[in-house]
Amino acid sequence: MGRIIEPIKERRSIRNYKNKEVSKEKIRKVLEAANWAPSNGNSQPWEFVVAKDEYAKKISKVFYDWAKDYIPNADYIPEEKKKAMLEYSKDFGGAPVQIVVTYQTGEDEIETEESLMAASAAIQNLSLAALEEDLGTVWIAGHIAHADRTKEIIDLAEDKKIAGIIPIGYPDIDPAAPPRKDPNLVEKVKWLGF
Ligand SMILES: Cc1cc2nc3c(=O)[nH]c(=O)nc-3n(C[C@H](O)[C@H](O)[C@H](O)COP(=O)(O)O)c2cc1C
């Protein structure tokens, strides 16, 4: 493994953080890496909202208000995992900062889809760069990314959407890697003309 593939495999979604501040300088570094992602027509359709303290609390509350009803009723979540998940959903496992990654939407459906692709590439860059700064992240999407309340908290323009909310901080956990389906790529890859 090389200098790129190793960190790609080592990155884990972190759902438990140390009670330790993250410097603005470190966050700036990971955002700079995010900003170097490829994009449709080099449009760079992403923006970043960095939230801490009362802003992070408000965003977490949107998540918890949804999760406290959703998790207990979700049949696919094993009962024994529900308590820990609810605890995590209160403040994303104690993450001191959240980075909201937004993208530009427009009239053209394909262009909007490509903007989301580009913002997603930025999020992956961000998550990998965080490793170099000894920081952990997790990509949160789903309900909270679409909720009007989240958009109000960050004062998001009408023509923008949220690609992900990325809690970031010093990991307080070293989770095992969730296995990848078909790791030897027997089923997932169709080789044509080989
Ligand atoms: C688009 C997207 C949405 C995700 N949404 C959530 C989420 O809402 N909550 C969460 O805890 N993890 C979320 N994740 C993280 C995945 O659960 C995680 O990447 C996956 O389980 C693999 O684990 P790993 O990141 O440690 O390799 C999301 C990941 C992606 C790419």
Automatic annotation (TrEMBL):
<dbReference type="Pfam" id="PF00881">
    <property type="entry name" value="Nitroreductase"/>
</dbReference>
<dbReference type="InterPro" id="IPR000415">
    <property type="entry name" value="Nitroreductase-like"/>
</dbReference>
<dbReference type="InterPro" id="IPR029479">
    <property type="entry name" value="Nitroreductase"/>
</dbReference>
<dbReference type="InterPro" id="IPR052530">
    <property type="entry name" value="NAD(P)H_nitroreductase"/>
</dbReference>
<feature type="domain" description="Nitroreductase">
    <location>
        <begin position="8"/>
        <end position="170"/>
    </location>
</feature>
<dbReference type="GO" id="GO:0016491">
    <property type="term" value="F:oxidoreductase activity"/>
</dbReference>
<protein>
    <submittedName>
        <fullName>Nitroreductase</fullName>
    </submittedName>
</protein>
